Amino acid sequence: MMPKLNRKASIWLYGLTSIYGAILTALTFLNWHGPDRWWFGNVNLFLPQLIWLIPGVLLACLSLVVARKFVWAPVLCMLWVLGPIMGFCWHSPSEVEGISSIRVMTCNIKYGQRNISALVDDISIYAPDIVMLQDANLEMLSNSLKKSFSKFNVRFRPDGKYIVASKFPLGAADIRIIPYNGEPHSCLRCQVYIGSNTFTLYDVHFESPREGLYEFLTAVRNPWAYSKTFLDIKKNLENRLSQASALRELVLLEQGPVIVAGDLNSSDTSMVCKKLRNALLHDAFNEGGRGYGYTYGHDLLRYKHPWLTFSWMRIDHILISSQLKSVSCWTGTSEASDHRPVYSDIILKKN
């Protein structure tokens, strides 16, 4: 009887592992083609991708019991999740001739919601040359960051929502409109002069998907509400795509090196980031980072579950034009904001 049971269990194991592999294949295709084209892919972008590891762990344990020689299959699927599906990056240091090496930092600091002393410490430790902040406040320039920015040139939007600080000379700050759905949303543009080179900076913050995702999570109490929830999620995506399109057109008009930094509320595989790559921009972490570079998620469950403080989304980015290269990129503290800051060492390539 036992051999028959083992054969049946093995058949089930092979079938379930095949289904698991097919799901991972579909997820990979979605990420390559633009996951937010479909509601499932759009929602999945904001979920911890680690959840796709759970079936692999269960199947690997089952393999050890009924078909030990088959354990390689679920293990391979688990590596697939830990690698491309979770967005693992690894760059090898390479010798690239360049000039004007600068360290750039960006952070959505959510001013007033958290104690930013940890951010001040981070700035002190990593000593960025250029700092680009979102959701800021002018009050912090005379309080929290007064000492940190004492030797910086500073530009800001009149309401202080965007702040750019630089150890190098800065040009005038310009407000550029990146509208969506009739809303006059804006970003901050300014130029920085490093030796004989002029860099253009865009400090940006795209619309948050928070409301649509919250509706999705709470609709379980009223399943009939899902149809409206899907429409709201789609509308939110369209708004961010509209912002990305407007920003892309602005970037394409620039002549020299460009750095776009901020909270895009979009992962690297999203159509929003793909649209910005069409403006000949590339992601600093993809080029110079190691690991996952997640910037968001660590604060969502902190108050109910203090041990759940890990990030699982990379929605804050530093994007650079083709004249530039990221030689290293990493994230900072999780204590100052619900967004980790992103740092990158960037060089201007020699022609």
Poorly predicted regions: none
| Name of the CATH homologous superfamily of the largest domain | Endonuclease/exonuclease/phosphatase
SS-based structural class?
alpha+beta
Shape: globular
CATH architect. name of the largest domain: 4-Layer Sandwich
Number of strands: 14
Give the biggest sheet: 6 strands, mixed
Q: Identify the strand order in the major beta sheet.
A: 4-5-3-2-14-13
Q: For the residues shown, what is the average pLDDT? A: 88
Task: List the total number of helices.
Answer: 9
CATH class of the largest domain: Alpha Beta
Order of helices and strands: HHHHEEHEEEEEEHHEHEHEEEE
Please give a structural write-up.
There is one protein chain. The chain is α+β, with helices and mostly antiparallel strands. It has two domains: about 80 residues; about 260 residues, Deoxyribonuclease I, Chain A (4-Layer Sandwich), CATH 3.60.10. It is built from nine helices and 14 strands. The chain has a six-stranded mixed β-sheet. A hairpin with an 8-residue loop joins strand 6 and strand 7. Helix 1 packs antiparallel against helix 3 and helix 6 runs antiparallel to helix 7. The longest helix is centred in the first third of the chain and has 32 residues. The radius of gyration is 22 Å and the shape is globular. The termini are far apart. The model has no long low-confidence stretch (mean pLDDT about 90).
Descriptors for this entry?
35% helix, alpha+beta, 9 helices, Deoxyribonuclease I, Chain A, globular, 351 residues, 6-stranded mixed beta sheet, single chain
Walk me through the topology.
Layout: H1 2-33, H2 39-44, H3 54-66, H4 72-85, E1 89-90, E2 98-108, H5 117-126, E3 130-134, E4 153-156, E5 162-166, E6 174-177, E7 186-194, E8 197-205, H6 210-218, H7 226-252, E9 258-263, H8 271-277, E10 281-283, H9 284-288, E11 290-291, E12 316-321, E13 324-331, E14 342-349
Parallel strand pairs: 2-3, 8-9
Antiparallel strand pairs: 1-11, 2-14, 3-5, 4-5, 6-7, 7-8, 9-12, 10-12, 13-14
